[in-house]
């Protein structure tokens, strides 16, 4: 068989990994807000959509045990494409909220399973040199998917709205476009993805043995040094962001009389999906360069300040209700740049704590705690905002930054970690 070039499938595979996550985590927020759902309901129900990423370590052993990674990838892509089409069909119906939430749940589980299979296939389909070479490529195309979903597709929906009566129509068309893109990706990957010899279902490993090994691995995670402090850090470092992420888009969309900024859907797509993502990416790149030069411990506290202090821009925007698009873009860029720079410390600590035997499984458990840390605070964010109002809610976010500082102060990190 002719060997497929990684360029023919790595970029598209990670583009496909990004689209459903953005649809579930971000596009759903904008759509529900434009369809008139309250902030309390939006935050509560969309936060539950984090659950598949919280518990995915529980079924990841069976992705290894049953079928091939290639089979899981193509099966999940077909299911995701069908799910996106299902959302498009049900948006104009009278019970759209309950129906689309149910389908978003299906998308979330399919997307989490696709993540497991895609990351495993990346390891099987490339040798060690190619894995190192393409790690930046996969991240870049995941970011491109973020810009396409959070930026261009939301801008498309905004362009199609043209008045409140056409909002369901606009979002239905947008999800049909997403479904078409994803079904095209499924068809492409069904033919193009290579079939590495190492990608085969387990033959001599039983489900019982898989679970036994999983329990041993899970137990060793909790016996690691500073395990309790590490878990607290994973859960609380992003406490402000977990709440802010659920309410930033509703704040930008709500009219001035409700304390928001009255932005249009198209403006949200440009500000959050383009300017914000650029700031986030630049912050992450600079954070990685800084740690590579001087180590994580040296940059830990600057990164804590970077992820916390820029949240003040929302206090400024809520008190002065600045509607000038340039100033809003500047504020969102600053906040996202700081978040990208500060988030570097979080991700590197997860890698640091996962070192040793079972590092891959331990890292998966770390990411589950990461998702749980976003899910639980996000569930009450809408109720808090509607109780306090936007101004006091954003002040509360600044108070929550104390938790970020407190858990960081408990960490013990090897000074050499992260240096060249």
Cα-atom Rg, whole angstroms? 21 Å
For the largest beta-sheet, the strand count, sense and barrel status come to: none
What number of structural domains do the residues give?
2
CATH architecture of the largest domain: Up-down Bundle
* SSE string: HHHHHHHHHHHHHHH
Gap from first CA to last CA: 40 Å
Averaged pLDDT, please?
87
Number-wise, the strands total 0
Uncertain parts: none
Classify the secondary structure makeup into a structural class: mainly alpha
Residues in helices, as a percent range: over 70%
CATH class of the largest domain: Mainly Alpha
- Count of DSSP H/I helices: 15
CATH superfamily of the largest domain: MFS general substrate transporter like domains
Determine the CATH topology of the largest domain. Answer: Growth Hormone, Chain: A
Task: Give the amount of beta strand, in percent.
Answer: under 5%
Principal-axis shape equals: globular
Can you give a write-up of this model?
- The protein is mainly α.
- Helices cover 80% and strands 0% of the residues.
- The chain contains 15 helices and no strands.
- The longest helix is centred in the C-terminal third of the chain and has 51 residues, at 359-409.
- The protein is globular.
- The two termini are 40 Å apart.
Write the layout of secondary structure elements.
Layout: H1 10-34, H2 39-48, H3 51-65, H4 69-90, H5 96-125, H6 128-161, H7 167-192, H8 207-222, H9 227-236, H10 239-253, H11 265-294, H12 296-308, H13 312-320, H14 325-354, H15 359-409
Helix pairs in contact: 1-2, 1-5, 1-6, 1-7, 1-10, 2-15, 3-5, 3-8, 3-15, 4-5, 4-7, 6-7, 6-11, 9-15, 10-15, 11-12, 11-14, 12-14, 12-15, 13-14, 13-15, 14-15
